[in-house]
Design brief:
Elements (H helix, E strand, L loop, with lengths): L11 H14 L12 H4 L7 H6 L13 E4 L5 E5 L14 H11 L11 H14 L9 H14 L3 H8 L3 H18 L1 H11 L9 H9 L8 H10 L12 H17 L5 H8 L22 H13 L7 H10 L2 E5 L3 H14 L7 E7 L6 E6 L27 E2 L5 H10 L7 E2 L4 E3 L3 E2 L7 E2 L5 E3 L9 E2 H7 L2 H11 L2 H9 L14 H6 L3 E2 L1 H12 L3 E3 L4 E8 L2 E5 L6 E3 L3 H17 L13 E6 L5 E8 L2 E8 L8 E5 L2 E5 L6 H13 L77
Parallel strand pairs: 1-3
Antiparallel strand pairs: 1-2, 3-15, 4-5, 4-20, 6-13, 7-12, 8-11, 9-10, 14-17, 15-16, 18-19, 19-20, 21-22
Helix pairs in contact: 4-11, 4-12, 6-7, 6-8, 6-9, 11-12, 12-13, 14-15, 16-24, 17-19, 17-20, 17-23, 18-23
Length: 752
């Protein structure tokens, strides 16, 4: 009865015998192996030889998850991201001390046995049986490697990780069979290399290279004897022997490894004793993981890149496939981010808006003709604390941005003007444009159901002095609401909708803009800064729109091979004629020269842009461009709860915030620094005749950047374009079409 446990059933010895019998029947002994005592380890029996034979023979060895490095367009590091901090290295790049230490302490007979060490199993069985508990294990390095492969394959799924590490006889048998295969296929040196690259060393470090960097700020090939012994000792229990948190426990464990190396003849006793006397000598490198650690304020751009990989089907047909690409890492991602532009964006934001302000700002710069995102930043830093956020205000919801973007105000008017010009409206078009007017009764849409002004809503200009008639150039410079509402009534909403489709303009949630006058005239619909800067780049590129891109190339390292991955490409297509784009460029050059955007105007190169302020001053915008760079700046509250009147922003008090007054200077400084030293090409401007001068004093525009300036220069009837190249064409003075005095909008809000 001595072989029976008090609870009945087989004793530990009998269970071990049964287990070893299964191995024999399965042919395991023929391979020179045996398994630990099942009962002594408290394992549940698998039950049959057939179960062993049914286990797949091939061990799937997924690529080890590694660090991903994100670079700017000059090759400078932006950030390092990883699900597991690991850099795979070859055995020749691992210190011989490290190789000897791990074998000495984890599997001293590694080079003498097969997949399972029978002598070690029997020794462990005997000691565990004597103590009545698991006091000694018997897994070889090969078995440990197989177990780590299971864990790696489980990823971050807690259920799969539990299955990969559960203490059951079934898992041990599976581990055994795959260990046999690995021994036959890889050989000892490759197994040791793989083990040192896959195993966990604590402190978020996976693999010996990451561990060497984490604890000693050195490489695996340069590890000294005492350093290698410390790392080898950590493996058994990374928490217990953590040298960062328990120095004495770590030293004791290190010295055990050193003595074991001396006993095995890896080093002399004198060398071991000398190493034992040395302090730990830690030079810890803190984990530097994730977009939150990005340099030059590029955290949100880094996060945008991550969102692209996780959501673009170029990287996998399913979300799971794309997540696997990102989590396995080993990627070197070269992006479009220009370090000069990025530094300039961040410097401008910092000088104009504080992170503690009630409102925030976001700015994005892109390159016309390529769609490359050159700079992206915002005043609320990436993070989880006070005055920090994980929301990228520059991009759409599907890429980590706000739910619906932000209403754009009068920065939308150039889209309407471009649609009208494409429909044949002349650039000297005149409308009565009164200070206030009712929206039109109906406005045509793309289907047979026109929009109807059922509630009798009205639209008005920013100031009572803004009374027409106006031509397009002056109306654009002064941002006259009623003028553009009348223009929309003339052409209908469908031409605007069509040109928006061609220019990539969608709501922040990715949906098309609704066919409503408020949306298609005065910018009441939320749009992201990236969308606006990319759309305005169409004007700079003489009518050709290019989709924005953030990634230039990706190389993926798997094992010793590096492979290039396909990346999303910018697609360019014509959105409007060159003549229309040139005309818009001429109109918007007047805005920064003598209109609402004077405080944003660049003095050293051709530039154009448009201001925008939304209802109750909840949002202020400036979107502008040169022939070789386009940028959008938004200022407001992400929750749309702040009305920007009598407010302090960046330490400066504002009675009222205007698009040219706060976003404009941010844009100016960001663009100036980004373009410093760059070429200064000009626009292909056109000649837009001015109407005869009239003896009437009109107050400057609704978006006047200096409210105390009265008329300022905004009333200059010549449009104030200044020195311009010879026009590519002229428009006859008699080519004038009067308006009908009506206009239309949906909600009566003012969006100058």
């Amino acid at each position: 009865m001595a072989n029976k446990r008090s609870g009945g059933g087989l004793s530990p010895i009998q269970q071990a015998a049964k287990f070893l019998g299964v191995s024999v029947l399965a042919g395991a002994v023929a391979a020179g192996i045996a398994l630990p005592a099942a009962g002594a380890l408290g394992l549940a029996a698998k039950g049959s030889v057939e179960g062993f034979d049914e286990i797949p023979a091939n061990l799937k060895r997924p690529p080890l998850s590694q660090r991903t490095t994100i670079l700017d367009n000059q090759g400078g590091r932006i950030a390092t991201v990883y699900s597991r901090d690991r850099t795979v290295v070859e055995l020749k790049d691992i210190s011989p001390y490290m190789q000897q230490a791990i074998v000495a302490i984890e599997d001293s007979r590694f080079y003498k046995h097969g997949a399972v060490d029978l002598k070690g199993v029997l020794r462990a069985l005997n000691r565990n049986a004597q103590s009545g508990e698991v006091s000694q294990g018997a897994s070889t390095l090969t078995q440990q490697y197989v177990k780590n492969v299971f864990v790696e394959e489980a990823g971050d799924d807690p259920t799969l990780v539990a299955q990969a590490t559960q203490q059951t006889l079934g898992r041990k048998i599976k581990e055994l069979k795959h260990a046999i295969q690995v021994e036959e296929e890889l050989g000892k040196k490759k197994i040791l290399e793989n083990y040192l690259n896959i195993t966990f060393f604590g402190q978020q470090a996976y693999g010996v290279e990451a561990a060497a960097q984490r604890y000693f700020s050195t490489s695996a090939k340069d590890l000294k004897l005492e350093q290698a012994a410390l790392l080898a000792g950590v493996v058994q229990s990374p928490t217990r022997y953590d040298p960062v948190n328990d120095e004495q426990e770590a030293i004791q464990r290190r010295n055990v490894v050193l003595q074991r190396m001396a006993d095995l003849g890896n080093v002399s006793q004198a060398e071991a004793d000398e190493a034992k006397e040395k302090p730990l000598g830690l030079k810890v490198s803190k984990p530097n993981n994730g977009c939150i650690t990005a340099v030059k304020g590029a955290s949100f751009f880094c996060d945008y890149v991550r969102e692209l990989v996780l959501n673009d089907k170029v990287f996998g047909k399913t979300k799971k496939a794309r997540a696997k690409v990102w989590n396995q890492g080993g990627l070197t991602i070269r992006t479009t981010l220009d370090p000069q532009a990025q530094e300039s964006v961040q410097a401008s934001i910092k000088s104009h808006v504080k992170k503690s302000d009630k409102v925030a700002t976001a700015a994005t710069l892109v390159e016309p003709g390529t769609g490359k995102i050159l700079g992206m930043g915002q005043s609320k830093p990436y993070g989880y604390g006070k005055n920090e956020t994980e929301i990228n205000y520059s991009v759409e919801q599907g890429r980590g941005g706000s739910n619906f973007g932000f209403p754009t105000g009068s920065t939308f008017k150039p889209f309407l003007a471009a649609a009208a010009l494409e429909e044949g409206t002349p650039p000297i078009q005149s409308y009565p444009a009164p200070y206030e007017m009712p929206y039109p009764e109906t406005v045509e849409t793309c289907d047979s159901s026109p929009w109807r002004n059922t509630d009798g809503a009205k639209v008005e200009n920013e100031d009572e002095s803004e009374v027409g008639p106006y031509r397009l150039k002056e109306a654009m410079e002064k941002s006259v609401n009623t003028y553009f509402v009348q223009m929309l009534e003339d052409i209908g909403m469908c031409p605007v909708t069509k040109i928006l489709d061609k220019m990539g303009v969608v709501q922040g949630n990715g949906d098309k803009l609704p066919e409503r006058p408020a949306s298609l005239t005065l910018g009441s619909t939320g749009i992201s800064p990236l969308t606006m800067s990319s759309a305005y780049a169409t004007f700079a590129n003489r009518g050709t729109y290019c989709t924005p891109i953030a990634i230039e190339s990706i190389n993926r390292r798997i094992g010793g091979e590096t492979k290039s991955l396909a990346v999303p490409k910018s697609t360019c297509s014509r959105a409007m004629s060159e003549t229309t784009a040139d005309t818009i460029n001429t109109l918007l050059s007047g805005v920064v020269d003598s209109g609402t955007g004077q405080q944003a105007g660049l003095t050293d190169r051709a530039n154009a842009g448009k201001t925008g302020t939304t209802d109750e001053r909840r949002n202020a915008w400036f979107v502008g461009y040169t022939p070789n760079m386009s940028g959008a700046v938004w200022v407001g509250s992400a929750t749309q709860a702040v009305k920007m009147s009598n407010i302090t922003i960046g330490g400066v008090w504002h009675e009222k915030v205007y698009g040219g007054q706060v976003p404009g200077p941010i844009w100016k400084d960001a663009m100036s620094g980004a373009l410093e030293g760059k070429e200064s090409p000009g626009f292909n401007l056109v000649n837009i005749p001015d109407p005869p001068k009239e003896d009437k004093d009109r107050r400057d525009d609704d978006d006047n950047d200096d409210p105390g300036n009265g008329n300022g220069n905004g009333g200059n009837e010549d449009g104030g374009i200044g020195d311009i190249p010879d026009p590519s064409f002229s428009i006859p003075e008699e080519w004038t079409i009067g308006g009908n005095g009506n206009g239309g909008n949906g909600n009566g809000g003012r969006f100058p």
